[in-house]
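Below sits the subject:
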Amino acid sequence: MSRSLMCWTLLMKKKAPTIQDVADKAGLSKAAVSRYLNKSIRLPQDTGRKIDEAVEALGYRRNLLARRLSKGGSETLGLVVPEISNPFFSEMAEAVEQTASERGYNLILGISRNHPEKELGFLRWIDDSIVDGLLFVTNRPDNRRLQLEIRRYDEVVILDEDIPGTTQDKVFCHNVEGAYDATRHLIETGHRLIFHVTGPASLMSVQERLEGFRLAHRQAGLACPDSHVFHHDYTQQFGREVVREILARPARPDAVFAASDYIAIGMLEELRRHDVRVPDDMSIVGFDDTALADLVTPKLTTIRQDAAELGRIGTGRLLDTLARRDKPRDIIRIATALVIRDSVSHR
């Protein structure tokens, strides 16, 4: 055999098997095999087993790109979050991936770090057909650039934090009720001087949690001056910094309701450094009930908003939109719950 013929023979041997090869080996038509592999037909058990055995024997892999193009989409969703180190967003991402996978979709993750240009860039994934749709989370104030851009896209569901002026499907928790329950718990356990440490004042979640905080004070007949509310970012660093400001006050609070577990955990770290005992000297309540809340010392009393449920519902709404683009838009709220652990004392 000549050298060129030998090389050609080796190339032919390495050629990837086709769907026709699978059909020939299983003794079935190409159309039947294709529909079976695409899960668009149900065949008798013995027939299906013949196809599965042929696929395994030949090492056949479907041409996913061709399949996606034939269906007119990428069969991929995108999830945009500010960060992934925060357990809240990682729990959400895991639920989105699982829900998407169950519906035959892949997931691409975009981490914006709250950078405006990165957020806008991720929206281009839809224009470039990298994804069929996006689940979008931001926790920064918007100067209307994001609002104006995101309104161009039907294939977006907004999670956790609102982008005012947009009309897409949205999935949030009951922020007012959750904050009310947190503050009410502190009042019922004997606390009277309660501070609130929260995020940027223009965010929906911040406004709603502050509303719940003030409502509990009004119902209990307690004062709630603006000087008891501290705004900055939803970060551990802010939690550490605000402790130093609070401890410099002439009168220390009995308790603090932090609008996120991340803030609360930063506070716990800094209070320990200043020999302030939680909950003996100061009680702390968080919001989110991330995995970290049960790992810190003391274990953190907090408000549970189910990040996984946000992800599951949001993914379902996005896939429904992709299947039926004329469906009505909706705002969905998921329940919160008080989770009592060790960071609140009875006074």
